[in-house]
Amino acid sequence: STQSRSSAASDVYKRQLEMLRGCGPDLEELCVWRSPVGQAAVMAIATRAEGALRRLVLEGCDLGDAGVMSLCEANLSGLEELNLSNSRLRDTSLVALGGSGWIKGVRRLNLSQGEFTLRGLERLWERGGLGRMRSLSLAGCGLGPDEVIELAKTPALGVLVELDLSFNPIGEVGRSALRTSSVLSESVKEAYR
Fold it and tell me: Structure pTM?
């Protein structure tokens, strides 16, 4: 029956969470995909990782603003790669990320399929969120030509060597703005030629 499958799935997630809680402070990589315990797992691990975590993938974990804000309170000072794709990120999530002390050390950030606006992205980098970043994925975020024209003018994005805007309706106008940008790196411009 549907109820017994739901109960069995819940038991599996509870066991996974208990296993994650047992991980030691030397954990360097954690990947959780499409798990309803994503937020609880993140908090369990992030509070124990004590700066050792280098790669964190929480793809499709439905974190929302509350999960991201909790994540920002953790000691993730060693984090180099963060994947929050398809995790219901909104503008307030990006503001929180930008204000976390550890985001400046992240080199690869995946925000694909986010529900944020261009203003949310601006708040992320206004708060220093692109410090060491070299790769940013905004795939499938609903960015159109007007937003991409603004992105192409943003000096903070000049540090990037990779900017993924796939699955956005940017059209030729957006691609042209990226190719002719005076602030984007040659490698980013080349990707849109």
Answer: 0.85
